[in-house]
Amino acid sequence: MRNFKFNIRGNNYEVEILKLEGTSAEIEVNGTMYQVDIERRKVESKTPILVRSAMSNSVLKGDAKMSAGEKSSLSKIMAPLPGNIIQVLVKPSDKVKRGDKMIIYEAMKMENNLLAEKDGTVKTVKVNVGDSVLQGDLLIEME
């Protein structure tokens, strides 16, 4: 099947793998047959895992203060993809119309424009130039 040559502590070994099934193998080392067990190690991923911090209780309590019949007039603009903020084109109290550019950000090695989905007034801008954002992060609140 496969032939290998090993030099271990000055000794030469010719190894031939004759049969390989699951975690056992039949090999021949310098003419002698051996049945060996193979230990397979799990390969750890080198990709970092992003972990978000838990939401504070004050944020959760603030959402709970709205009564059942009350509706929020705020429109939340979220990041559609993870990326970096290149330019913020609006500030609080700016009036925007549908289709106006609000933020330019880099995602997937491309510059993307975040456009207003409806007419309104910018209440808060939650990001600054140079910030890194994850998908779904809050960028702008509008009224």
Secondary structure topology:
Blueprint (H helix, E strand, L loop, with lengths): L1 E7 L2 E11 L2 E6 L2 E6 L19 H8 L10 E4 L4 E6 L6 E2 L4 E7 L2 E6 L4 E6 L6 E2 L4 E5 L1
Q: What is the CATH topology assignment of the largest domain?
A: OB fold (Dihydrolipoamide Acetyltransferase, E2P)
CATH H level of the largest domain: which superfamily?
Answer: RNA polymerase II/Efflux pump adaptor protein, barrel-sandwich hybrid domain
Q: What is the alpha-carbon Rg in Å?
A: 30 Å
- The total domain count is 2
Assess the beta-strand content as a share of residues: over 45%
Task: Give me the CATH architecture of the largest domain, please.
Answer: Beta Barrel
Mean pLDDT: 81
N- to C-terminal distance: 71 Å
> In the CATH hierarchy, what is the class of the largest domain?
Mainly Beta
Poorly predicted parts: 58-70
Q: Which structural class do the helices and strands define?
A: mainly beta
Shape: rod-shaped
Let me know the largest β-sheet.
Answer: 4 strands, antiparallel
Counting DSSP E segments of at least 2 residues, the number of strands comes to 12
Q: Roughly how much helix do the residues carry, as a percent range?
A: under 10%
